[in-house]
Amino acid sequence: MNLGFQEAIDLSKKLANYCKSIKEIDVAVFPASPYIFQVAKEASKTIIKVGAQNMHHEPKGAFTGEISTKMVLTCGGSMVIIGHSERRHIFNENNEFIRDKVQSAIDNGLMPVLCIGEKLEDRDNGRTSEILDYQLSGSLKDIDLSPLDKIILAYEPVWAIGTGKNATPEQAQETQAFIRNWMITKFGKGIGDVRILYGGSVKPENAHSLLIQEDIDGALIGGASLSIDSFGKIIDIALEIAKEEK
Predict the structure, then answer these.
(1) Which pLDDT tens digit goes with each residue over 55-101?
(2) Average pLDDT score over the chain
(3) What distance in Å separates the CA atoms of residue 239 and residue 245, rounded to the nearest whole number?
(4) Domain 5-245 grouped into CATH 3.40.190.10
(5) Do the beta carbons of residue 51 and residue 71 sit within 8 Å?
(6) Half-sphere CA count of 93, side-chain side, radius 13 A
(7) Checking phi first, is residue 188 left (phi over 0); if not, alpha (psi -120 to 50) or beta?
(8) pTM of the entire structure?
């Protein structure tokens, strides 16, 4: 919940200009819902995809303050973040509610970015795998993920969001590998290519060490995305790594 309208548009214009010749990587932005239409307009001639920060699973109805998949799509959005830690822990969204959102997004042609992650006390007590298993099992219950490009996962340790703390690259890699193996065990070997992002105080200073990890396919960026200087540097780092891997 950041930026006024003009600030958001100015940032999207700068980002669109920054990305105008980029083809090797994917870039997506998730503005506040009142800005989706205009941001999507600014991004329309670039690689940048636009999505919503949240949505309701019902197509319409008496859900004051919510937005539907149709609203996102008709404003130019193609993606949606679901189950962000703040939705889970501040707004008390449970796995069943999040699962319904994931299903609705898939059914209606939005790419869900499903977020999972543990609190500090869970990690300190050795419960990271248990918590992630619980969140994945509940949030993906009875969902058909074939074809396999229907979803993106984002691991965001709650203790590293907006705190200045960060998982070490080794900690992040270990957890991301667990998530990938969980997906393969649950859905079959073919889903091993599912894109898994890392989120949690990603910034230019640590982006390279995180993005070079084998099971980190990208970053879910918070505060650093509010400035073209910091966001642009992260894009440059991702672009450099993508070119090296080719």
Answers:
(1) 999 999 999 999 999 999 999 999 999 999 999 999 999 999 999 99
(2) 95
(3) 10
(4) no
(5) no
(6) 23
(7) left
(8) 0.96
CB atoms within 10 A of CB 219: 23
What is the C-alpha to C-alpha distance for residues 136 and 123, in angstroms, rounded to an integer? 17
Domain ranges for the chain: 5-245
Distance CA 105, CA 151 (A): 9
Q: How large is the C-alpha radius of gyration of the chain?
A: 17
Q: Phi and psi of 59, rounded to 5°?
A: -70, -25
Q: Scanning the structure block, which residue is given the tokens 């993106």?
A: 152
- DSSP bridge partners of 111: 79
More confident position, 139 or 245: 139
> Which amino acids are annotated catalytic?
84, 156
Token readout for 144 is 């058909």
| Rounded Cα gap, residues 54 and 51, in angstroms | 9
For residue 24, CA distances in Å to 47, 133, 137, 239 come to 9, 33, 33, 7
Please check the confidence at residue 188 and state whether its pLDDT lies above 80: yes
Is it true that the peptide bond before 147 is cis, omega within 30 degrees of 0?
A: yes
* Distance, CA of 130 to CA of 127 (rounded, Å): 5
CA angle 156, 112, 200 (to 5 degrees): 15
